[in-house]
Amino acid sequence: MKAMSPHFLRMSIKSPVDIDEKLFEGFFRDEIFSSWASGNRSWQLHLFGGPGCGKTILSSLVANYLRDHNSSAVTIISIERQAAQGGKITTEAILQYIQDQTFVRERIASSSAPHSFVLLDGFDELPEQVQTILQDYLSKLSSSNRRVLLTRRVPEFVGSINGKCEVFSCDNPNCNAKDLRLFWESDFSATDADDRCVFMLCNPCYESGERCLHPLHSGAMVEPYTYRNIEVTLDRDSIQRFVQADLEREYGASNIPSKVVETIVDKAGNNISIAKLRLDHTRDLSSPLDTYNLSDRLPRSIIAFYDAEISRIDATNQTHRKQVLMALVAATENDEISSKQLENLLRNVNTNNQQNSGDSDLAVEGVVRMSRGLLWMRAGSEVRTYHLHLCNYVQEDYNEELMEAKRLLEAVRRPTADTAAIWRHENGSMVKRQLHFPPSRQISTDSGYFSAVPSPGEISRVNTPSDTRTLMSRAASLSLNLNEGRISEALRSTGDTRSICPFCEAAILHSRTLNGTYDRGEQDLKASSGCFICSSILEYATVKQEGFQNPLVKCERLKHHWSLRTTGPTGAEFTTTLTLQPATLLFGTSPRRYHFVSASDLDPIPDPAHLPPSTHLEHAGPQVASWLQACTTKHVYCVRPTPQSYIPKRLVCISASSSPSTIRITLTTNNLPVITPYATLSHCWGTSTFLTLTRENEAQLTCGIPLTSLTTNFQEAIQVARFIGMQYIWIDSLCIMQGEGGDFGTEGDLMHAVYRNSYCNIVAADSKDSTGGLFRPQRDKGSRTDCRRSDVLPSRYKSKAESVLGEGEWKILHEGMWSDELLGAPIYERGWVFQERMLSPRLLHFTRSQIFWDCSTLSACEAFPTGIPYHLDQHASVDRHWRARLQSTSLDSLTPSLSGGPNDDSPETFWRTAVQKYTACALTNQLDKTVAIWSVAKLVRDLLPSSETYGAGLWSTKLEEQLAWHVATCEPSKRLADLQTGWPSWSWASVCGEVIAGERLVHRRCYWVTRHDGVGDVGFEMEGKVESRDEETRVPAAGAIEMNGIVGNGVVVCDERSGEYGMTIGENCEAKSSSGMKEGEDVFSVYPDESLDVADLLPNECRFIILAASTHDPYAELQRDSLLDDSAPEDRYSGIGLVLLSLSEFAARKLGRYEMELKQLREERDHLRCEMEWLEQEQAENAGMVETKKWYGITAKRTQGLSNWIEGMKNKATQDCNEGGERFRRIGSLQFRDLSAKTWRRILEKRENIWLE
C-alpha cells in the first residue's frame, strides 16, 4: 500500500525565476560533481553550507541538470524546516515514502537507464536518531545503482577535533597532484596485512590507466570513502554578475554605478540569500546610491533572516539551546574561538552541578551541529560564525535571547560566580535560575517575518479598562469568537478573488523573460478591470492625469516597463516580485511592486463573502473587539511597565450609562484619578466651522450638550470609544481652550503625554474635515468613492507549469498597501498627526477601504486580520518598534534601558526616520514646523546624554554631520519667506517639504570642521531660557554658526538625462563640467535645497565647505594635521559638505524674490486694515469682524518679520568679512566618495574661517 506523504516532506523544489545554472557554473564544472553525476560512482555526494548559501536552489538545479543530460530517473525530496520540532516523526513512514517515490519515478523513466538518482534536501533538519537510520538505508540505495545526494548545513566531522585532517598526494612519479579530493588506493581486501602497501592515485591518473605495480597486488584499486563533500559557495564574479543583472532589469544598465554593485557584493560575501536580502534592502531605499551610505544598523531583512534562524535552534532541550547561544556569543567576541577554549567554556557552565544526571553537556561538535550552520568549524581548528553579518547581528544586540546569553556568559566568567546557583535540576531537565542582571527591555516582534498575534502559549498580562466585561458582552452580542484573540475560522477561507487576464499572463508570466515593456491601450485596460495588473496601471495613470491642468495632455497607450525577481528567503517558497515602472515621466517615476507569495506561506485570508459589508461597528465590531482583546491580554510588549502617570486637564465624558444622548467636558483635576482610561481622536479640522471649546461656551459644555450637536467625526468617534469600553475621550478642539484666552500654549507642550497615556487612539483617516465621519457603509455599491470588498483582499493566481513561476497557487500582495491605503489617507497629510501615530499605544484607523489596527506587537487590517505579511510590513514594523520603545517606560522617568535593547535602532536613527516621515506631511502653518515634532524630540532628548542640546531640529553633538541634510525632491520655491524669517538656512526647518536628515555616523572621521579656533566643536546658540523641560528650545533665526574648514570653489552642472546635480572641483573645473558628470575623480554629488537658477550653474562658480570626511582604511590612524604629509596612506576618501552662497551674492541675486513677496504682504495687510476699519465704522461686531482682526494680526506680524529679515540680510552683506570670516547661506548639500588621496591633500590646504547663516 502506498504511503502517504509525511507533512514535512515535499516532492518538488521550485528554483527562483532569476537563478539558473550559470550562477553555480563553478559547481557544475567541479570534478567531484562530474564524477558523481556520471552515475558510475557508488559514494554519496554531500552538499553543505550555512543558512542562505543556496543548497536548496542548487539541489533543484542539479535535478534539472540530471534530467537534461541523461534519461535516468530523478527523485527529489525536500525536508521542511523544523522537521525535528514539527511533531512525531515516524522513521518507517519516511523510508516507505522515499522507496515509493523512487520506484514510481524509475518506472516512468527509461527502463534502459543503468542507474537513478535520489536527492534529499535538508537532511540535517531531521532528528539525529532519524538521520542515523535513514543514512543506513541510503547507503543500501547507493550500493544498488541509485546515486544519492544530500544537502546539509553542517558537514560530517572527520577525525577528532584535536586531530589533523589527512592530506593525500598522487603516488604516480609523473604526477605532482596534491591535496586530492578524489583518489584511488590499492584494494587490500585480498591481501595479507603484512604485504600491504600504501599507493594512491589521483582521479585523472586512474582514469588514464595507471595502477599499483607491486608484484603481490592484482592492480585492483578502490575509492576508500562512502561520501564526498562539496561546500556550496559562490565566487565573487558570479555574485557580482547576479547583482548587476538584478539591478539592471529594474533600473537600467546606465543608472547603476559600479560602486553600488560592489558594495552589495562586498556585504553579501559568497552567500546568495544575503545578496538577495541586500537587494531587497536596496529597493527600500530612496535611491540605489544610498546602498553605500554608512549606517549604524543592519537592514530589517537581514535581522528578520537571523531572527528566524535563531528561533529554529532546537528548543526541546533548553540547556543545549543555551549552550549553542553562548557559543555564538563567544565566537563573535574576537571573531573566533579555539575549539579547546569553547569546550572549556561550555564545561564551566555546569561545573559543580552534580545533580545534572539526565542532561549532559554538548561537545563542541554537538554545539556546531545544533547551531544549524550558524557556527563553522574545520576539524581541529577555530570555531567562528559562518558570515560577517551574523557576527554583527550577535555583537550589536538585535536578539533578546542572545543578550541573555551574553549576561549568562559574563556570570560564568566571573571569578566569584557560583555557577551551581545558575542552574537547577527540575523535572529531569536543567532550568536556569533567575539571575539578578539589569532588566533588558522587551520590544515588539517587528523583526519577524510578519506581524502576528502571539500563540496561545505566550505569556499574558492584562492591562484593560475596568469595564472589560462590557467589551466581552458587546462582542458576544455580535457573534464574535474571541478564542485566542483570533477571528472565527468561518471567516478565514481561501475563497476566490481576482486573477490575471490572458494578455498579462502571456505578456509577462509566460514570456520566458525576466523583463520587458507593457504596452496596452486604455480601452483594453478598462475591459480587463478584473486583472490586477491592468487595474493597477489604469488607476495609476488616471490619478496622475488628474494632476495635470493642460486638457491636451492625454496618453492613448499607457506604456510601462516590467521586471521579475525573487526576494530573499521569507517562507517555505520563494516569493517572486513583479515591478511596474512607468515608461514616461508623464505618469510619475515611482515603481509599483507586487509580490507573488505562496498561499501556504500566508495565514488564511477572509473570503469576500465573509468580509464585513461596511466598516460600521455593526459589521466590523467583532474584528475590532478581537484585536483589542488580544492586545490587552496577550501582547506582552503592549503592557506598560508602570501605571498610567498622567491624565489630560480636560476630557469629554461620554458615559452611556448616565445619559447616552448627552456629553460634557470634565475638568479632570477636580474629579478623576490619574489612572482613568481614556481614548483619543485624530481628525482633520478642515475648513468648515464646527463646535470648539472657548471661554464663551465653557460653562455650557461643562454642564452638557446633546450628542447630536457635534459633527459626524465626533459622534462616530464616541460610538467607537463607547464600544471599546471607554467612558472618556480626549478631542483636541473640545479639550484645549481655543481662541482668545485659550491655553494651547501650555496644553500643546503636553500633547505627547496625552497620547502616550491614552488607552487607544481612534483615527478618522478618510475624513478631510469634521463632517466626513469614520464609517464607510457602502462597499460594493460600484460608485467611484466606494470600495469593493474584493478590492480589499489580495488577488489569487494559479500558475501552470509553463509559467515562469512554475505550477503553484499564489496570493498577490501590493507592496504599497500600507502606505497607499493607510498612510496615503487624508489624515496623514497633517504634520501634527505624526506624533499622534508614533506615541499612541494602540490605534484604530478607519480608512476608505477597511479598518486598520496598529499596536506595539501587531499591525493588521480586515484583509490580513492576523498580521500584515512581511513584504507589506516595512513602514508598519518601524512604527511598531518605536511605539514599543516609547511605551516601555513611564512618562516621568525614561529609564536607561530604553536606549538599548534587541533589534534597536539608535535614537539618532529613530530621529532621522521621524524627521523624514514628519516633513513628508503637510502643515497648514509652516511656522509650526518644529512645534509639531517637539513631542517626539523631547523623548529622544531624554534618551541621549544630558549634555545634548536640541535646537532648530538638530542636536548639538556631531552637529557637522547633521548639517548635511537634504530635500527628498528638488523643486522650486522650497525656501518659503515665512520659514526664512523663523529659521537659519542651516536648519531643515527653513525649507518646505520632505527632508532626509543627516546621519550622526559612528564611523571614524579623519577630518571635521571646527570653530574658528581650530579646536572646538561647531555649535549653535540658544534663544533665551526655557522655564520647563516641556517647553521647546529655540534657536534665533539670525543665529550663525562659526566654522573653520576646507572651503573651495566648484562648478555645478545638471545632468540633462537624470536630472541630478554634480559639482566638479579643482583646476579647469569648468572644462570638466562641460563634458557632463561622470562617476569618479573630482566630482561631488550635489543636492540643492531648491531648483537652482541659471546663475547657480555652469559657468559660474559656487563655494563649498567640507563638513566631515572618512578614509576607507579602518586601520589608518590619521589626524587632521598629518594629512598634508606626503607619506600619508594613498587611500580613498568619502565625506559630506555644503554648497554655499555668500551673503553679498544672496543679496544681489535672491533677495529680490522675497522683496516681491514683502510687497504682496503689505498690500494684503493694508487691505485687511481697510476692511477692519470699515467694519468698525459699521459697528459690525460679528464673526466676520473677529476673523478679519485675526488675519490682520497674522499678516501684520508676517510683514514685519519679513521686512526685518530682509534688512538684516542687507546689513550683514555689507559688513567687513575680514572680521571673523565671510558670511554664507547654504543652498544645498553635497557628498563625495572615492576621492583620491592626491585630490584630498590638495583641497585640504584651503582651510578658512566662515560664518554659516
From TrEMBL:
Keywords: Coiled coil, Repeat. Residues 1144-1178 form a coiled coil. Residues 678-836 form the Heterokaryon incompatibility domain. Residues 26-82 form the Nephrocystin 3-like N-terminal domain. It holds the Pfam family HET. Gene3D superfamilies: P-loop containing nucleotide triphosphate hydrolases. PANTHER family: DOMAIN PROTEIN, PUTATIVE-RELATED (PTHR33112), TOL (PTHR33112:SF10). This is Heterokaryon incompatibility protein-domain-containing protein. It comes from Clohesyomyces aquaticus.
